[in-house]
Design goal:
Number of domains: 2
Shape: globular
CATH class of the largest domain: Alpha Beta
CATH topology of the largest domain: Glutaredoxin
Oligomer: single chain
Length: 210
């Protein structure tokens, strides 16, 4: 007895996806990505802002008041923005180094600093951990949106961003060590030395709505 080989028919053969189904899948994927972006913002696929990119608009809250402020760079001014980690123990090592750098640079009206604590564990905890530096540093609270606009997570850091006199991010660093802070302070001091004499203006901290 012989066995005839089975014959493939059109119904038995694997079918390639048709163009209509592929198009539906692509539309669904695009809608899903759009919904995720609207829900989570640019932090969903976060990457640090790159050197040379404009400083994103940054909303910070006062450490001891309920008002929020929109931080904007101004032509001819330098800004040092620091996002502290949400965990106070992780933020503590960098604070004395920042206070020292601020003490050396704060008298120049062309320089501004904003040290923003992520309040992921609650604003009261952030306020308590920063209380020893009240009056020694320009302190703020940062919700999740502010660090996310720079492509960093509030659970990490500290993250440092130096904004040049043209409003562009000119240096990005991460760390708490003295070497990191001293290197950034030296860079800021060099820019200040190269700038024209200071005008009577600073970085603008404008009151904004909630």
């Amino acid at each position: 007895m012989t066995t005839e080989p089975a014959a493939w028919t059109d119904d038995d053969a694997p079918r390639a996806p048709d163009r209509f189904n592929l198009a539906l899948a692509a539309v669904a994927l695009a809608l899903l990505a759009g919904a995720a972006w609207l829900r989570f913002g640019p932090g969903l696929f976060a990457r640090p802002v790159r050197v040379g990119e404009p400083m994103p608009p940054t909303r910070l809250a006062g450490l001891h008041d309920d008002g929020s402020r929109l931080l904007l760079g101004m032509e001819g001014r330098i800004l040092w923005l620091v996002f502290l980690p949400a965990e106070p123990a992780e933020a503590a090592p960098v604070l004395p180094e920042l206070a020292s750098a601020w003490g050396r640079l704060k008298d120049d009206p062309r320089f501004g600093m904003a040290v923003a604590a992520a309040d992921g564990l609650g604003p009261e905890l952030a306020r308590a951990s920063l209380e020893p530096y009240r009056g020694k540093l320009p302190l703020y609270l940062a919700g999740a949106d502010a660090p996310r606009s720079f492509g960093v997570e509030p659970s990490g850091g500290p993250w440092h961003f130096l904004v040049d006199p043209h409003g562009r991010v000119a240096a990005v660093a991460r760390g708490s060590g003295k070497d990191t802070v001293d290197r950034l302070a030296k860079m800021a001091a060099g820019w200040l030395d190269a700038l024209a004499p200071a005008a009577d203006a600073r970085f603008r901290l404008t009151l904004a709505g909630p």
